[in-house]
Amino acid sequence: AIVLQLASPILDVRPFTAPPPDAATPSADKVKRDRVIPDVDFPVDALAAANVDLDIDIGRIRTHSADYRDVMLVAALRDGALIIDQFGVSGRRGRLQGTLSYVPDADGWLFGADITGEQLVFAFREESEEQLLARPAFSLEADLSGRGTDLRALLASLDGRLLMYSGSGVLPAGSGRMARLLFGDFATQLLQ
How far apart are the first and last CA of the chain? Predict the structure, then answer.
Protein backbone atom coordinates (compact mmCIF):
# COMPACT_ATOMS: atom_id res chain seq x y z
CA ALA A 1 0.00 0.00 0.00
CA ILE A 2 1.16 3.51 -0.82
CA VAL A 3 0.06 6.36 1.42
CA LEU A 4 0.91 9.91 0.38
CA GLN A 5 0.08 12.86 2.58
CA LEU A 6 1.34 16.26 1.46
CA ALA A 7 0.49 19.58 3.04
CA SER A 8 2.40 22.71 2.11
CA PRO A 9 1.74 26.44 1.86
CA ILE A 10 3.69 26.55 -1.44
CA LEU A 11 5.15 24.09 -3.91
CA ASP A 12 7.37 25.52 -6.64
CA VAL A 13 8.00 22.89 -9.33
CA ARG A 14 9.79 25.23 -11.75
CA PRO A 15 13.32 24.16 -10.74
CA PHE A 16 12.40 20.53 -11.50
CA THR A 17 10.70 21.04 -14.87
CA ALA A 18 11.67 22.49 -18.22
CA PRO A 19 10.01 25.71 -19.37
CA PRO A 20 7.39 25.23 -22.09
CA PRO A 21 8.75 25.29 -25.64
CA ASP A 22 8.65 28.55 -27.54
CA ALA A 23 5.19 28.96 -29.09
CA ALA A 24 6.77 29.94 -32.42
CA THR A 25 8.48 26.53 -32.69
CA PRO A 26 6.13 24.02 -34.36
CA SER A 27 6.00 20.58 -32.82
CA ALA A 28 7.57 17.92 -35.05
CA ASP A 29 5.68 15.07 -33.42
CA LYS A 30 2.15 16.37 -33.96
CA VAL A 31 -0.05 13.54 -35.13
CA LYS A 32 -3.04 14.28 -37.33
CA ARG A 33 -6.09 12.79 -35.70
CA ASP A 34 -9.13 11.73 -37.66
CA ARG A 35 -11.41 11.83 -34.60
CA VAL A 36 -12.41 14.61 -32.28
CA ILE A 37 -12.58 12.16 -29.37
CA PRO A 38 -9.45 10.00 -29.52
CA ASP A 39 -9.33 6.28 -28.83
CA VAL A 40 -7.76 6.17 -25.37
CA ASP A 41 -7.97 3.05 -23.24
CA PHE A 42 -8.07 3.46 -19.47
CA PRO A 43 -5.50 1.40 -17.51
CA VAL A 44 -8.09 -0.71 -15.70
CA ASP A 45 -5.61 -3.55 -15.09
CA ALA A 46 -3.26 -1.13 -13.34
CA LEU A 47 -6.15 0.19 -11.25
CA ALA A 48 -6.93 -3.33 -10.05
CA ALA A 49 -3.32 -3.91 -9.03
CA ALA A 50 -2.84 -0.66 -7.05
CA ASN A 51 -3.59 0.21 -3.45
CA VAL A 52 -3.06 3.95 -2.87
CA ASP A 53 -4.29 6.65 -0.49
CA LEU A 54 -3.69 10.34 -1.32
CA ASP A 55 -4.28 13.40 0.82
CA ILE A 56 -2.87 16.55 -0.77
CA ASP A 57 -3.43 20.11 0.44
CA ILE A 58 -1.23 22.80 -1.12
CA GLY A 59 -1.84 26.52 -0.74
CA ARG A 60 -0.06 27.45 -3.97
CA ILE A 61 1.63 25.54 -6.80
CA ARG A 62 3.94 27.48 -9.10
CA THR A 63 4.73 26.17 -12.60
CA HIS A 64 6.32 27.76 -15.64
CA SER A 65 2.96 28.38 -17.27
CA ALA A 66 0.59 29.10 -14.35
CA ASP A 67 0.06 29.44 -10.63
CA TYR A 68 -2.61 27.38 -8.87
CA ARG A 69 -4.11 28.06 -5.44
CA ASP A 70 -5.99 26.01 -2.87
CA VAL A 71 -5.08 22.70 -4.47
CA MET A 72 -6.63 19.71 -2.71
CA LEU A 73 -7.01 16.05 -3.50
CA VAL A 74 -8.36 13.33 -1.24
CA ALA A 75 -8.43 10.05 -3.15
CA ALA A 76 -8.12 6.30 -2.76
CA LEU A 77 -7.44 3.47 -5.15
CA ARG A 78 -8.60 0.13 -3.74
CA ASP A 79 -9.73 -3.13 -5.36
CA GLY A 80 -9.72 -1.46 -8.77
CA ALA A 81 -11.94 1.42 -7.66
CA LEU A 82 -10.70 5.00 -7.97
CA ILE A 83 -12.59 7.22 -5.55
CA ILE A 84 -11.79 10.93 -5.42
CA ASP A 85 -13.67 12.13 -2.36
CA GLN A 86 -12.59 15.71 -2.90
CA PHE A 87 -10.60 17.68 -5.45
CA GLY A 88 -10.24 21.38 -5.99
CA VAL A 89 -8.02 23.91 -7.69
CA SER A 90 -8.15 27.67 -8.20
CA GLY A 91 -6.34 29.73 -10.80
CA ARG A 92 -6.55 33.09 -12.46
CA ARG A 93 -9.48 31.82 -14.54
CA GLY A 94 -11.66 30.41 -11.75
CA ARG A 95 -12.10 27.43 -9.44
CA LEU A 96 -13.09 23.81 -10.07
CA GLN A 97 -13.97 21.35 -7.31
CA GLY A 98 -15.91 18.19 -6.80
CA THR A 99 -15.83 14.42 -6.55
CA LEU A 100 -15.10 11.65 -9.08
CA SER A 101 -15.33 7.89 -9.09
CA TYR A 102 -14.39 5.13 -11.50
CA VAL A 103 -15.39 1.77 -10.09
CA PRO A 104 -15.83 -1.79 -11.38
CA ASP A 105 -19.28 -3.32 -11.23
CA ALA A 106 -21.00 -6.40 -12.68
CA ASP A 107 -21.37 -4.79 -16.13
CA GLY A 108 -17.89 -3.22 -16.49
CA TRP A 109 -16.68 0.11 -15.16
CA LEU A 110 -18.87 2.93 -13.89
CA PHE A 111 -17.81 6.59 -13.90
CA GLY A 112 -19.41 9.28 -11.74
CA ALA A 113 -18.64 12.98 -11.37
CA ASP A 114 -20.11 15.81 -9.34
CA ILE A 115 -18.27 19.00 -10.32
CA THR A 116 -18.81 22.69 -9.64
CA GLY A 117 -17.00 25.64 -11.09
CA GLU A 118 -16.99 29.26 -9.99
CA GLN A 119 -15.81 32.36 -11.84
CA LEU A 120 -14.59 30.26 -14.78
CA VAL A 121 -13.21 32.44 -17.57
CA PHE A 122 -12.56 31.03 -21.05
CA ALA A 123 -9.60 33.01 -22.31
CA PHE A 124 -6.18 32.57 -23.81
CA ARG A 125 -3.37 31.94 -21.33
CA GLU A 126 -1.43 35.08 -22.25
CA GLU A 127 -4.32 37.50 -21.63
CA SER A 128 -3.73 40.26 -19.10
CA GLU A 129 -5.77 40.70 -15.92
CA GLU A 130 -7.59 43.63 -17.57
CA GLN A 131 -8.59 41.44 -20.51
CA LEU A 132 -9.73 38.67 -18.17
CA LEU A 133 -11.99 41.11 -16.32
CA ALA A 134 -13.73 41.92 -19.64
CA ARG A 135 -14.57 38.25 -20.23
CA PRO A 136 -17.78 36.65 -18.96
CA ALA A 137 -17.36 34.54 -15.83
CA PHE A 138 -19.18 31.20 -15.89
CA SER A 139 -20.58 29.02 -13.13
CA LEU A 140 -20.71 25.30 -13.74
CA GLU A 141 -22.73 22.51 -12.15
CA ALA A 142 -22.22 18.98 -13.46
CA ASP A 143 -23.59 15.67 -12.22
CA LEU A 144 -22.53 13.02 -14.74
CA SER A 145 -22.31 9.25 -15.01
CA GLY A 146 -21.18 6.84 -17.68
CA ARG A 147 -19.52 3.51 -18.23
CA GLY A 148 -16.69 2.11 -20.28
CA THR A 149 -13.02 1.18 -20.30
CA ASP A 150 -12.03 3.70 -22.97
CA LEU A 151 -12.68 7.40 -23.49
CA ARG A 152 -14.97 7.03 -26.51
CA ALA A 153 -17.22 4.44 -24.79
CA LEU A 154 -17.34 6.50 -21.61
CA LEU A 155 -18.31 9.70 -23.43
CA ALA A 156 -20.81 7.82 -25.61
CA SER A 157 -22.60 6.59 -22.47
CA LEU A 158 -22.36 9.85 -20.53
CA ASP A 159 -25.62 10.86 -18.90
CA GLY A 160 -26.57 13.47 -16.33
CA ARG A 161 -26.92 17.18 -15.91
CA LEU A 162 -24.59 19.99 -17.00
CA LEU A 163 -25.56 23.58 -16.28
CA MET A 164 -23.52 26.65 -17.15
CA TYR A 165 -24.42 30.20 -16.28
CA SER A 166 -22.53 33.29 -17.37
CA GLY A 167 -22.34 36.92 -16.55
CA SER A 168 -21.91 39.67 -19.09
CA GLY A 169 -18.71 40.11 -21.03
CA VAL A 170 -17.03 39.63 -24.38
CA LEU A 171 -15.55 36.31 -25.45
CA PRO A 172 -12.05 36.57 -26.92
CA ALA A 173 -11.49 36.84 -30.65
CA GLY A 174 -11.08 33.35 -32.02
CA SER A 175 -13.81 32.00 -29.72
CA GLY A 176 -15.30 30.40 -32.77
CA ARG A 177 -13.08 27.43 -31.92
CA MET A 178 -14.91 27.03 -28.62
CA ALA A 179 -18.30 27.37 -30.33
CA ARG A 180 -17.31 24.82 -32.97
CA LEU A 181 -16.13 22.48 -30.19
CA LEU A 182 -19.39 22.80 -28.26
CA PHE A 183 -21.75 22.80 -31.24
CA GLY A 184 -19.72 21.01 -33.92
CA ASP A 185 -18.07 17.61 -34.27
CA PHE A 186 -17.33 17.13 -30.55
CA ALA A 187 -20.94 17.69 -29.49
CA THR A 188 -22.17 15.61 -32.40
CA GLN A 189 -19.99 12.66 -31.37
CA LEU A 190 -20.83 13.14 -27.70
CA LEU A 191 -24.59 13.42 -28.14
CA GLN A 192 -25.18 10.77 -30.82
Answer: 41
Running DSSP on this structure, what letter comes out for residue 114?
E
Query: CB atoms < 10 A from the CB of 55, how many?
Result: 16
Gap between the Cα atoms of 148 and 167, Å rounded: 35
- In the predicted structure, residue 112 carries a pLDDT above the cut 90: yes
85 neighbors 107 (Cβ within 8 angstroms) = no
CA distance 153 to 149: 7
Alpha helix locations (H) across the chain?
44-49, 129-134, 151-157, 176-183, 185-191
169 exposure class (CB count in 10 Å sphere: 0-12, 13-18, 19+): middle
Q: How far apart are CA 70 and CA 114, in angstroms?
A: 19
Residue 171 and residue 147 in contact, taking contact as beta carbons nearer than 8 Å: no
**pLDDT single digits (tens) 32-76:** 566 667 778 888 788 788 899 999 999 999 998 888 999 999 999
The model's pTM is 0.76
